[in-house]
Amino acid sequence: PTQRQRPRVLLKAPTLAEMEEMLTSEEEDSP
Amino acid sequence: HPVNIPRKEKDFQGMLEYKKEDEPKLIKNLILDLKPRGVAVNLIPGLPAYILFMCVRHADYLNDDQKVRSLLTSTINGIKKILKKRGDDFETVSFWLSNTCRFLHCLKQYSGEEGFMKHNTSRQNEHCLTNFDLAEYRQVLSDLAIQIYQQLVRVLENILQPMIVSGMLEHETIQGVSGVKPTGLRKRTSSIADEGTYTLDSIIRQLNTFHSIMCQHGMDPELIKQVVKQMFYIIGAVTLNNLLLRKDMCSWSKGMQIRYNVSQLEEWLRDKNLMTSGAKETLEPLIQAAQLLQVKKKTDEDAEAICCMCNALTTAQIVKVLNLYTPVNEFEERVSVSFIRTIQMRMRDRKDSPQLLMDAKHIFPVTFPFNPSSLALETIQIPASLGLGFITRV
After folding, report:
1. How far apart are CA B345 and CA B349, in angstroms?
2. In angstroms, rounded to a whole number, what is the distance separating the alpha carbons of residues A23 and B75?
3. Per-residue pLDDT averaged across B152-172, rounded?
4. The pLDDT of residue B312
């Protein structure tokens, strides 16, 4: 693999449960 | 006139560009509205996963972390939504279990982490993500895959459950073997299955259906093995539990029927090259109970043989089968109390569980072994049937 210039940035992920909350609030917001 | 020069695959970089505002449409067309029996039938296995990953690649290429986060979150929530809506449909659950796993494998295969690049071509290594480490999202996807797998087990259990007792115990697969009615008991079923009852063939046909759907969806072979092992465990546990609770099932001829049925299930495993799945081993308690119905039960030597043979049954289960055992005809004696005492004495050191019934609801822990794909991303084309015209191959 090609030599990397800079390290990749770790993207912090919400947990499944937090995503579930997002989904629920999304569904509540949508008419 | 602008000449539309068809670009060769070698010019494509295996990414898909889409506008941020088109993300909801992407999730709707690729996840929420996609019917596994519809257009999805003609897709290459795992195509939705590859498309989603190629979109992630482009957002990573743009170094747009918001776009990556939004797409991953919408993808995960989209899959959860569709499984809430159609989560009792085996094809839907199998389809999204396969695609969730393929998406997870892509995130690993193209993560840039050495351990996941061993099987990559040099071109695939050029396609690794450049800006973001998505290890935390991989963990969330793995948690999602576990949830989907458990949902798949519930769905197949609901389909199999009504077939098991009838097909494995009541229906006389070998017609006439219990021609002689067990003394004092009305014969429960005719040798030809009545209309509406399930037979062993019903069970095997259902296993075939499950297996072909999972193969059609491109489910990882190691995962198919785990699903089959779980199915066989359910069949074995439900059959044994009913045998332990029903006097009319504890006879020599029923032992013969069960052994024949188990041999047919083993034949199915062999046909599907699934003998290493561990499925056969889950039937061992049932196999031993069937043998127990057929062996001699009189002398100390018989007791010794039974204790050696029944290492997958608890003492409570062995005693129960011996108590329920019903001689085939008046010439045969019932199992004596003293013989059962001998068995109990010989097994008192076993200290096994006092539990009589098997836990038919037990789900084996699932694993998703890394399974890289040889598919070259730059060759992937998006069928018009998916309605994704707003996405551009890059």
Report:
1. 8
2. 11
3. 96
4. 96
The whole-number average pLDDT for the span B50-60 is 98
Distance CA B277, CA A9 (A): 39
State how beta strands A9-10 and B16-17 pair: unpaired
Residues of chain A in contact with residue B114, where contact means CB-CB under 8 angstroms, are 1
Closest CA to B142 of B110, B102, B90, B112: B102
Task: Please check whether residue B23 is in contact with residue B29, taking contact to mean a CB–CB distance below 8 angstroms.
Answer: no
The label of the residue with tokens 């598919």 reads B375
What's the pLDDT tens digit per position in B303-317? Answer: 999 999 999 999 999
Q: How far apart are CA B178 and CA B244, in angstroms?
A: 19
Q: Are strands B16-17 and B392-393 parallel, antiparallel or unpaired?
A: antiparallel
Residues B18 and B51 sit within 8 Å (Cβ to Cβ): no
Per-residue CA distances from B1 to B4, B201, B392 (Å): 9, 65, 21
Asked if A16 reaches chain B (Cβ–Cβ under 8 Å), the answer is: yes
| Least CB–CB distance from A10: residue in B72, B80, B133 | B133
Residue B28 in contact with partner chain A when CB distance is under 8 A: no
> How close does chain B come to A21, measured CA to CA in Å?
10
Report the pLDDT value the prediction gives residue B265, as an integer from 0 to 100: 98
User: Shortest CA distance to B255 belongs to which of B333, B180, B190, B177?
Assistant: B177
Please answer whether residues B366 and B226 qualify as being in contact, where contact means their C-beta atoms are separated by less than 8 angstroms: yes
Residue range A1-31, pLDDT digits in tens: 445 567 899 999 999 989 888 777 777 776 5
In this predicted complex, what is the ipTM? Answer: 0.82
Residue of A nearest to B65 (CA): A11
| Pair B140, B76: CB distance under 8 Å | yes
Do A8 and B129 count as a contact with CB atoms less than 8 A apart?
Answer: yes
Contact B73 A11 (CB under 8 A): no
Instruction: Tell whether the model's pLDDT for residue B190 goes beyond 60.
Output: no
Pairing of strands A9-10, B132-133: parallel
Cα B264 from Cα B270, distance rounded (Å): 10
Cα B72 to chain centroid, rounded: 26
pLDDT above 90 covers a percentage of chain B that reads: 84
